[in-house]
Amino acid sequence: MFRLSDLRNYRQTVIIVVIMTVILMVVSLVFQNKIREVMYGDVKENFVRQSLIETEAINKSFAGIVDAMKSVALTLGDSKNIGGSSSIKALQSVTDVTGFSTVGVVDIHGVTLHGDMVSRDVFQKISGAFQGNSVVTIASSNSGGSYDVIFAVPVYSGDYIKYVMFIRSSDDELIEYLNRGNNFIKTERTVMTYLLYNLSDVVYVNHSTDGRLLPYFTFNVLSQRYQVTSPAEMKNIIEQNVNEIYNYKVDRYPEHYLSITPTQFDGWSYAMLIPVDVVNNNPRMVMGMFLVVEVATILVLLILLLSYEFTVNQNQKRIYKLAYQDEVTGLFSKARLREVFGKFIAGSFDGKDLFLVKLEMVNRQYITRLYGFEETERIELHSAEIFRRVTDPDVFIARVQDYFVILYRNADIQYVRDYIGEFLKDLETIPGVDFKAYFVAGITNCVFDDEIVSEASEDRLDYDLDNCTIAITQKALNIRCHTITVYDKAMRLEIIRSEQIEHELQPALDRGEFLVYLQPKYDLKNNRLYGAEALIRWNYKFEGIRPPYQFIPIFERNGSIALIDNFVFKKVLECQRRWKELGYRQIPISVNCSQVQFMNANLLTELKRQIQGAEDLVPYIDIEITESATIDDVRHVQEVLREIKKLGFKISMDDFGTGYSSLSNLSLMPFDIIKIDKSFVDRIDVRKKRSQSVLLIKDIISIAHHFNIHTLVEGIETYEQKEILRGLGCEYCQGYYYAKPMPLEDFEKLLAQDECFIDKCETEGQKA
Ligand code: C2E
Ligand code: CA
Ligand code: CA
Q: How far is the CA of 613 from the centre of ligand 1 (A)?
């Protein structure tokens, strides 16, 4: 969802861009004049440079005409008479080269020797050539129409001047001639170029010029400016100000800049005009372009920045989501939990008021297996929904892997328990779901007095989560109710201890720290020794005997219990062999087979291997299997038991009555004996011989007998108990009343004597 607050970065960007734009605009406005100046300078400079180039070109053109005439004049000087064919041909060549209309030759008296007659005026202008000069001059203007330009050169014969040769052209012809190969004039239409004669008359060069106003006004303009009256003065000024630009302003005429450059020919100047607009428009246009580019750049920048911001923002959101949000539930992730945990713990005095709860669905696997993954997810989403409603700033809820983590600060354990209890009630029933989800909660108080982690830090989180897990795994998981367990330091120590023990098993077996004790079993009818149960003992580091409950669960967890069971089995076989050889009565000895062994594919192979060569002893080995082992996978257990049975072993169901197995299992499994658990005996009130518990035992015995299964009662400690059981028809008995588990040597003595047990009732009675 798009929120306005997301725009924070965009707004910054826009502000930056706007500021940039304003700065750029202000800068360009402030420096506008400067820029214009620079550009005017450029245009003017170019203008002057161009006019010098043009002048140069015109100088050349003029010189070219004169040179051509001079070379013809040489021919004329040598020829005997002007009218001769060679001289006519030479004169004709000048017309060919220049295209000018009239070529003529006059003598010192003004008599025309060739070409048209010259008037007095014209002769006067030509006569300068009789002083040895080349003359280029304007001759006349026929009433504002065309002008005659006269070029004249002296014709020498030896050292003296014999004639003057002249050509006369109209201004149009001259323009034609001068424009040959002049690209600048052709392309730059706005620029007007003029040829001026004494600033008072004109031959215009550029086709685009209009009228012949220029010289007159030029003179006016310049004379006003310099307050001069005569052309000679003006010429002087112009020669001094070759590179100057004049403002040329006359009523009918648009304002121009004007440059005037004298040519090398006397009285002739070259004028160039450029409209002021062209000069001014240029910078204006450039300024405009500059602005357009400026705005376009800013726009592009803005778009780029915005799209960049947008991408960054999207990415940030994505990253935040990835890092801080659980994908399935949308709750906070572990990364966020770690941060909040760090914050909470930093603000906590000693962690005493800070609690961490790990909440895991216990029947998750069952639900998934029975109803499908979607249902599990539905429950989780529903739970997340409930958690999301929490607004308490002291409570933080996250989802890590497939469990929830709740963090409480400023709380005490009872408060946390109640809070979790409320949650669990809410989580139990989910709309549209028929079954119930059960959770297990592990709570830990994040106090800082642990040896392992004793300070407040984010890293503590894993340690405290670990503690929650320890608390959870303390109790056997019950998947039919909610469980709340509070972590205790002893739990961790226990785990550390069991981890140590795990590695000690094999070396201890090798060193012979393990012992087999035997607890006798008696026949209730006659108090005769009936058999025995082999029970393991660990003389830990030879420092003292440890009872099985301290190590068996640990080895069951990692599967190494098989090593113990095999060890006991081997020891029992050895004993049986020995006693047979000694000629003792052969009695069944039972060994315990841990329920984890049923998952062990090698169980049968191992048994077969062990009994090789001892087949005769097998009927005297009884294998005890706890009742709970038969609940999980009935068919598999049934199969394994049948195989065991086939090998010739007897099988007992141990701890009968504790595992909630159905009595129907009795008919399915090939048991020889059921061992009624001590808890039944404990419930007997010896004064009430017909109490419920007694009746229950009686029923169990009769059902067992119905299936041809013998019964043995465990944990008989008194004569009265024994008597009651005997009265109920139970056949065998095992308990401290008869004997405690004892070392092999002790049992061997007992077997050797093979005497009946003498009841202690009289002794008890005497005491009483
Ligand atoms: P269990 O198979 O039910 O063994 C009987 C336990 O009850 C023995 O405890 C025995 O000492 C005790 N007991 C017998 N009579 C009485 C009595 O009158 N009163 C009282 N209070 N207790 C009595 P133990 O030897 O500590 O063994 C505990 C459990 O450890 C056994 O229960 C068995 O499940 C397991 N265990 C012992 N040895 C082995 C073994 O070699 N392999 C396996 N897998 N488990 C074993
Ligand atoms: Ca047993
Ligand atoms: Ca038992």
A: 29
